Amino acid sequence: MENRVLELVEERTFQYQESLPALPVPALEESLSKYCESAMYPTQRNLTAFETVLRSLNRPIHVISQIYEILIKHHTDNTPTFTRYWEKDLGEAISPLDWEKAFILTHKMSLPCKAQETNYKILSRWEKLAVHKSGNKPLDMHQFRNLFNTCKIPGVTRDSIINYFKTESEGSCPTHLIVMCRGRIFSFEAVIDGQMLSPPEILRQFSYVQNICQSQRDGIGLSALTSEERTRWALSREHLISLDPKNLSHLERIQSSLFIVSLDEDSPHGTPEDYSQFFPALNNTNSSSCRCKTNFGEMRSHNFSVCVFQHAPFDAMVLVAMCDYIDQNVKACEGRWKGPMSVRDMPYPEELVFTVDQKILDDIALAKAQYYTQASDLEVANYAFTSFGKALVKKKKLHPDTFVQLALQLAYYKLHGRPGCCYETATTRMFYHGRTETMRPCTMEAMTWCRSMLDPSSTVCQAAVLVCSSGYKFTGFDRHLLGLLLIAKEQGMAVPELFTDPAFTKSGGGGNFVLSTSLVGYTNVHGAVVPMIHDGYGFFYRIRDDRFVATCTAWKSSPETNADKLLRTVFENFQEMIQLMVNAQL
Prior knowledge:
The protein is built from 19 helices and 20 strands. The chain is α+β, with helices and mostly antiparallel strands. The chain has a domain at about 100-130 and about 140-375: Choline/Carnitine o-acyltransferase, domain 2 (Chloramphenicol Acetyltransferase), CATH 3.30.559.70. The strands form five sheets. Strands 13-7-6-10-11-12-1-18 form an eight-stranded mixed β-sheet, with helices on both faces. Strands 14-20-19-17-15-16 form a six-stranded mixed β-sheet, with helices on one face. A two-stranded antiparallel ribbon has the order 2-3. The longest helix is centred in the last third of the chain and has 21 residues, at about 565-585.
């Protein structure tokens, strides 16, 4: 999606919400059939075996048919069942890195970036953000309500989302920021007398925090607790609240803030071809970062910004849209503030000092150690392929996204000798409160093409024809199956054998995809995500007219994976594929 959100518009951001159609529930047989077809290739089972499973599952007396009937009853026009169950699944207690995603702007001008981020919030509150559309049809904008003033509250068995955002017509909402630096936490208002702070005023507040933290002792790093496994963080939070009533007040101020800024002193370096060091938010040991807010940013001393977010309240495209807005507006002003340099009389940031005991200090130390162990195990490779980009691929009559996905499938096949079950994000935002659905690029056509590329007897023409026919269409069913599974658990019913069959996990079901991928757009915004499984890869990429930029992640402790090698093999495949089309004169 190449939406730009740069100007004030007559349409109100949320005006079409109630007129959007409900996401339809597919027929049970349709979803089961799609699952069997998609699972055949990564599991290397024959179709006959799956057809037998399909016939047994689709009998009216089977438990899965009974669950389906319950799902139909739950699904109404104003209750998006799939979205509700998917968000419920994201709320299950998990490790912090599992659902974190990071996006980055490499401008050497972080302060204007933060000013534009605050301005973006003002536009959303005034409902002046342009409505995203597919053609002339409006898409669901509900997720933009969760970009600011939103927090994920830990629970012993399940997290919950709390949102304080309101549009101007709905009433007032909090306008303060939280700033973290060297283990200490501060707060200040970003809007005074109805007017947003200017970049010089924001600089004054940030400088105050930084000067204090550099001249005094480091804080205890309380925010490290948010990097804990969610159940342990929930228990620590309960204990923290029991120590002093003001602790709850401080937590609520953090929870309700617009967003969090972490001032960091790392100075990573990169080149136009290698951005790998620009993702410290995924593999640093900074205890100032807070994983409870759904949107927090880190400003580095090298003057660039990292935005990291929790996936539960909104999808990556929301943050990409905001980062693209920042990118375009910072470029428009050449990264310089051209307004008045005067600073209004305003309170300095207030430090939030918590009452803690030895148990909390011990929990903090444990959280830091555990996070360091996990984060230091993450390998990040983020390179740019600059030989060509979208323009040449489209000239050869190939879709750029299909081009990348096929190159990735071929790379995995070359390195591992087998198909790689693959998740690619698709959107359902044309429906009311739509979120995402799964596309599974590991298709029969893709595998046939991979084998032809590695078969010395295959002709250039045969391989070229296969690559042109290897595109895939959106045939999502994973959210449907997830709803069925969660209803079975809710109702205390027997879990259908579909979900306990090893083929379900091996084909990626239950969040077990070997390749977790997403096209993050056609902008300058980088993105990254950790692998879904230990022996898997995270693979985010963006597409430009003259280049492809991709970020591949893997766990160093896995004996099977190597992020750098996979990404470089993908780039080698780009060259092979485009040369194939040239030789075939297509």
